[in-house]
Write a structure and sequence with these properties.
Blueprint lengths: L6 E4 L5 H12 L3 E6 L2 H13 L5 E5 L5 H12 L7 E4 L15 H26 L6 E5 L15 H21 L5 E6 L26 H12 L9 E3 L4
Parallel strand pairs: 1-2, 1-4, 2-3, 4-5, 5-6, 6-7
Helix pairs in contact: 3-4, 4-5
């Protein structure tokens, strides 16, 4: 499937998984609106995409811990388009440390704000643009840490709390937006290999059952869900931890 005429917003697209996703969607024809905490990081990925021959790409700064910054990002996108077809909530600060006392109050606040509050406010501010689309989708990169009973990650308790909040929000979002045709799609990966080639080229080597989960596999899941007929609501992808 190509994504020609799809307009996609991706938060935290300045590096790692967000960058991989932005490159892939642009390669498939989507118009991409990407953000990063700093404008320089977003512009770097924008320039990468342009160097691949794609010019329907826009870069903005968006600090998900700052409500005003989220509003400014949405307003910036609205200056370029009257609709958004896909919002991908990728942004959420990771915090390491299986000891509650190991992180500062500031780090805990930042982690909760970026993952929990930031996701809610991103959907709130982009919802008017989404509702102007005839194929609106909200994709949220959660984590296995947002699954009840999960305890195998070395992430800090605050990260678990942020991801649990995201999961609860995605659950009610799916119920309340479905009557308006909005599909809420969530991914709950365990730790995965994010070391995709810096070139952004897509790997074609078969991936076996014992191979680590990769960013490419997660992107493939997102593309699969988005490509389904509009009456197919794939609510969540859960991944077995090897």
């Amino acid at each position: 499937m190509t994504f020609d005429d799809h307009r996609v917003v991706i938060t935290a697209a300045g590096r790692d998984f967000g960058r991989t996703l932005a490159l892939r969607l642009a390669d498939l024809g989507a118009e991409v609106f990407l953000s990063a905490r700093t404008l320089a990081a977003a512009e770097h990925v924008r320039d990468e995409i342009r160097a691949r021959g794609h010019h329907k790409v826009h870069a903005s700064a968006c600090d998900l811990t700052d409500p005003a910054s989220i509003r400014d990002f949405a307003a910036d996108v609205a200056r370029h388009t009257d609709r958004i077809d896909v919002l991908i909530n990728n942004g959420s600060r990771y915090l390491h440390g299986p000891d509650l006392l190991s992180a500062s109050d500031a780090d805990i606040t930042d982690t909760l704000a970026s993952g929990a509050t930031g996701t809610v406010l991103a959907v709130k501010n982009f919802l008017p643009l989404l509702l102007n689309s005839f194929r609106p989708d909200v994709v949220t990169m959660i984590s296995a840490c947002g699954t009840a009973g999960h305890h195998r990650s070395d992430a800090h308790d605050a990260f678990y709390a942020a991801k649990s909040a995201q999961a609860g929000f995605a659950e009610i979002l799916s119920k309340r937006l479905r009557p308006q045709g909005v599909r809420a799609i969530s991914l709950y990966p365990s730790d995965f290999d994010n070391s995709d080639p810096l070139s952004g080229e897509w790997e074609t080597t078969p991936r076996g059952a014992q191979d680590a989960l990769t960013a490419q596999s997660l992107v493939d899941c997102i593309l699969f869900a988005l490509a389904q007929p509009r009456n197919c609501f794939i609510k969540a992808f859960h991944f077995e931890q090897v």
